[in-house]
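Memo subject: From amino acid sequence to discrete backbone structure tokens
Action wanted: Derive the backbone structure tokens from the amino acid sequence.
How to read it: Take the token row as a discrete description of the fold.
Attached in line: The record itself begins immediately under this heading.
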Amino acid sequence: MSGPRLVLTINCGSSSLKFTIINPETGEERLKGQADALGSSSAALSWQHDEKEGTQKLSPGDDYEGVIGALVKRFDGPWSALREQLRAIGHRVVHGGEQFADSTLINDSVVSAIRACCELAPLHNPAALQGIQASLLAFPELPQVAVFDTAFHQSLPDYAYLYALPYSLYRDHQLRRYGMHGSSHRYIGERSAEILKTPTDKINVISAHLGNGASLCAIKNGKSVDTSMGLTPLEGLVMGSRCGDLDPGLLLHLGEALDYSLAELEQLLNRNSGLLGISELSNDCRELEEAMGKGHAGASLALKLFCYRLAKYIAAYTVPLKRVDSLVFTGGIGENSSWVRRETIGWLSQLGYQLDNKRNEDIRFGSEGQISKDGTLDILVIPTREDWVIARDTIRLANRAL
């Protein structure tokens, strides 16, 4: 087989599938795309390849197996040259529990372990499993690797990951804080070290991954020492439709006084809260900023609450780090919303953070760089590259299997 070694990365969401074909050594994306609205009449597959874009309508019955089947047809046709260069497939898996502190080659026991974690990430792990199983059938000749969001956070000390519950619940049931977005936070730590010309094992970073799902990570000497998500992706920051931190007694009240069932609580906390719940308008930051500009009170309140809670977490993470080399914004909101960055930093002036307003406005939509004033604490914007982290881990493990 000729040409560079390429990796196909697959990221299955609750009703979507994102994919890239990437050179793991250079990070060059040769193909990227996604399938959206799976299970609906508007389901469609879209892609970018060789600076050209394409779309294909999917049937309402198409699931992850149907999407991967559609990809295989294209790999057997117009993308055949790419398939010849594929060496492995990497799958993003949100939750690996305590069993996985690193990425791993997929086999039957790994599939069983991922399935056992489904109750910890009910919106993500079942989808990942479907994507893995469809991919194993479609590409039986290729090594396949699971890359876990939780793995990077296995370096948390026990006093950071334990809940103040009876210790037997951890000992017997592994109920603890796990954290998510590990591939993103890991990339931010490594890229920050490159930008600041500091060894990775010496860098201290507060990484703010802000999107529809959002989390903060305190990275000390290149390792995660605290993070805002917990047992599940619900804990921590306000998110698009998730509530983040709340008083657990509130759940008791909802069940006892308002007769909420467990299913209704899950729907409330995961899908009807956060920016959507407060604004009563949307979970999309872009829509809320536009509505705020037109005087929508709910949108304004939701965004201010989001930034206030984020700023409190940033301030808190100076505790485990003591010395902070850089505060980094990443993710869809972190990379693109100059308003959110400005509002958040406005709460942190007492720590020495000062924003350069022109840089803040200029560094958006894929740009990378410093947005703080010269001579003040570093604030960076770094577009995350989870797909590259997945590809690098995948080829590393695949080489051992070949």
